[in-house]
Structures are given as structure tokens and as C-alpha cells.
């Protein structure tokens, strides 16, 4: 396998729901490993939490996530955004509609001064997404 860079998102208890939502938006195959799969070493209250999850799509997207383990701080912030870009306007608009539904739109998906159609939103799980649709040339 060639090297690749994957976004990895930490959640404080709703990684399963978030990854299932992202699968409903992006499609693909979702694999989940729960803390509870490790028997007596499972931290109390973590039986249903996700130790590692990975969504891989037919379009080549990969997204990883987990619930923060006990003892680690979870401090969501505005220091990460996930960008979806390309020239398939229908596909990207479909992702936008699903990701922004129930979330907060900070930049509406519309034509920008640099010529692309761009929008930015924060989904219902607190993750920022940028969608950029380039002109087909």
C-alpha cells in the first residue's frame, strides 16, 4: 500500500453516530472496533465506545475517528477542517446538503471572487467542512 494522509477525528462518546452519519453522506465501507471487544481490559463505561473507526469510500476518501479514551482530554476547536473539492458539482452539492443539514453554515455554498463555488459549514457533530466546486474547463 502506498502512503496516504487520513483525517483522524476524536469524539467524546458519539464517534459511532458521527461515522455512521458520514457514511450516509459519503457512502463507502465503515469498519468499527469498540473498546468492548477487548474483554476485561475495557474501561468501565466504554463497552459501546469506538476505539478505532475507518470509513473508506469508492471515491478514495478515507476518514478515521475514535472516542477519546479515559484520562485523555477532549477539546474540540476550530483548528481543523475537512475539505471536499473537485469539479463534480452535483456530487459535491449533495455532500454539502447532507453535511450542512442540522449544522451551521458559516459561508453559504455560492460563487466566490476566485471563481469557484465554495461553502463552509460545521456539521451537527462540531466538525468544520469546506466544499469547493471548481469550474469544469
Automatic annotation (TrEMBL):
The organism's place on the tree of life at top rank: Bacteria
Domain Glyoxalase/fosfomycin resistance/dioxygenase: 5-131
Protein name: VOC family protein
Amino acid at each position: 500500500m502506498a502512503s496516504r494522509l487520513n483525517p483522524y477525528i476524536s469524539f467524546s462518546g458519539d464517534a459511532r453516530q458521527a461515522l455512521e452519519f458520514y457514511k450516509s453522506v459519503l457512502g463507502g465501507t465503515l469498519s468499527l472496533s469498540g473498546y468492548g471487544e477487548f474483554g476485561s481490559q475495557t474501561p468501565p463505561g466504554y463497552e459501546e465506545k469506538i476505539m478505532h473507526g475507518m470509513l473508506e469510500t469508492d471515491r478514495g476518501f478515507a476518514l478515521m475517528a475514535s472516542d477519546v479514551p479515559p484520562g485523555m482530554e477532549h477539546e474540540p476547536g476550530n483548528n481543523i477542517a475537512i475539505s471536499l473539492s473537485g469539479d463534480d458539482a452535483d456530487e459535491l452539492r449533495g455532500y454539502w446538503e447532507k453535511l450542512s443539514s442540522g449544522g451551521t453554515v458559516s459561508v453559504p455554498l455560492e460563487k466566490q471572487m476566485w471563481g469557484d463555488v465554495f461553502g463552509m459549514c460545521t456539521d451537527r457533530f462540531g466538525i468544520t467542512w469546506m466544499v469547493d466546486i471548481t469550474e469544469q474547463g
